[in-house]
Amino acid sequence: MKKLIINNNVRRLRFENDEMTQKELSVKVGVSRQTIVAIEKGQYSPTLDLCFKLALAFDKQISEIFYIETEGIKDE
Amino acid sequence: MSYNEKKSITNIVSSIIITGVYAIIIYQKYLNGSIDATNVFKFWAIIILIFIPISIIARIIIMIIFSIINAVVQTAKGEDLDEADLVDERDKLIELKVTKASLIVFSLGFVLALVTQAFNMSNHMFFITLMLAGVITEIVSETMTIMYYRKGV
Q1: Residue ranges of the domains in chain A?
Q2: What is the pLDDT of residue A73?
């Protein structure tokens, strides 16, 4: 089974949305600022629920926020 | 350092201090003969039953002091106050993983305590092993919490 490395555009999307701060985004989606930091660093893969909340916050599709690193598929 | 990491470090330190101080006090009383140790099970039952409320009260006091100091330091630095009351999905996932590891560590401690009895060691050793397993479980779980918050889940 291959392990997927999931990356995201949260940091870029924040700046494209009037330079939204991590704190502002965390309040919008109902998590702590530390969780937003962890998502941006790729240290935490959010649940589908949080993915949809982020999509709503940025007014984007989930696929525009999260993507699979094509060279990052590793054997488990 | 995040609020949860600071809280975990405080928990490790407080756990070691509370258990250590209590163990020293009880050992001194045991040496002085002020505690009746003829019935080993009654002796340990009393020690543990007294330790539980003392530990809870001491932890509450330490956490209140920690929260006040943390808030004062953050205010002085001009930082936003930590979201201490907000528990999100990442916190719950970390808690779940740490709880699982804690159960494994304490179970190993319990098995070790049974081994002491299988090898005819004193009954005191059974309870000492259990108490040590409790402290080690606390240290392992808080260390894992810090690790998960730093390196990711």
Answers
A1: 9-63
A2: 59
